[in-house]
Amino acid sequence: QFFDKETRVLELLKLRFGESPLQACEVMLRDIQDSGRVDRVIRGDPRHMLERDNNRPNQPEIHARVLSHLFWPSLQSESFWIPPIIEKLQLSWASGFTTLKQARKLTWLNALGQVTVELELEDRTVHEVVQTWQASVIFAFQSNHKARVINGNVMTKSVSQLMAQLSMSEFYVRNALTFWVGKLVLRPSSTHPDVYYVLEKLPSSALHPGLPRSGTASNLLTAAAAADAATSAPAPAMKSEEEIRNEKMEVFWQFVVGMLTNQGAMPLARIVMMLKVVVPGGFPFGNEDLKQFLEARVREEKLEVVGGSYRMAA
Question: What are the residue ranges of helices labelled H in 129-240?
Fold first, then answer.
């Protein structure tokens, strides 16, 4: 059974605090379990053509989790362009959902998803599990014929072009570009730093670390290492690790507001436990991270601490 651990923890909390304060949490946990079953039913229905075809190994597939807005706090999600083939799968999945749950409508929160990406380059294949905006950005570097060289010239994309093409904010575009630079998939132009192109081939010494490195290979690896470290070191084009963490925390803040508004004051440990249960994909931060964030909200007079528990400010 899915979420056995979370279910046991919830039962223990109900013994400690009573059933009434945790009723909404119980409903949200059940919501997640139900959405998993719904996904399997929809994907198993041949009318929606969502099951993987073994004769088409490169066919994408989609899994979805449904959160009922009646029991979940509202989630803010960045809106941006996604590849048409994925949008088509979303429409098919939504059609199956409507068949099962009539009179209910889905709103896709694309920025909360994850994508398994396989990139076939000239000398290598790259496999990564990435955020959806990172997948959309790298998809923009291929043409309809999977070619990235046009009339003998390497296809390039600028930050401003990607923002317009994908209807995506600058922060998400730069985050994705930096990610792919770190994976040695993209490289910024030497003359125009805001212009990027695909690294179809790597120097042999970059592919095989044991070989002596040329100047080009050393530059590539140095740039890749810097890109991987971009989230931990502030840079003019990127936000610092703390700023990125706070932006992510702002999403979870909506959950905290909903819980404290509906169920009253809670200690830190209980807030963390509930976030791990109710947040899609799990809550990625620890107690200290959340404590720092909540203390900042206390200083902003949005929260109060009474007897070791947090509550909404009066």
Answer: 132-139, 159-166, 170-182, 204-207, 215-228
Measured from the Cβ of residue 64, the count of other Cβ atoms closer than 10 Å reads: 20
Which stretches of the chain are assigned E, i.e. beta strand? 114-120, 125-131, 149-150, 153-154, 156-158, 186-188, 195-198, 266-267, 303-306, 309-312
Closest CA to 59 of 50, 69, 47: 50
Q: What is the pLDDT of residue 148?
A: 47
What's the rounded Cα separation, in Å, for the pair 146 and 118?
13
Q: How far apart are CA 221 and CA 227, in angstroms?
A: 10
Q: What is the DSSP letter of 214?
A: P
149-152, long-range: CB within 8 Å, 24+ apart, which pairs? 149/200
Q: What six digits make up the tokens of 213?
A: 């490195």
Taking the chain (314 residues) in consecutive chunks of 10 residues, what is each chunk's mean pLDDT?
75 84 79 84 75 63 81 70 91 88 82 88 89 92 54 76 94 90 87 87 60 49 49 36 68 84 88 79 80 90 92 88
Judge whether 278 and 72 are in contact, CB under 8 Å: yes
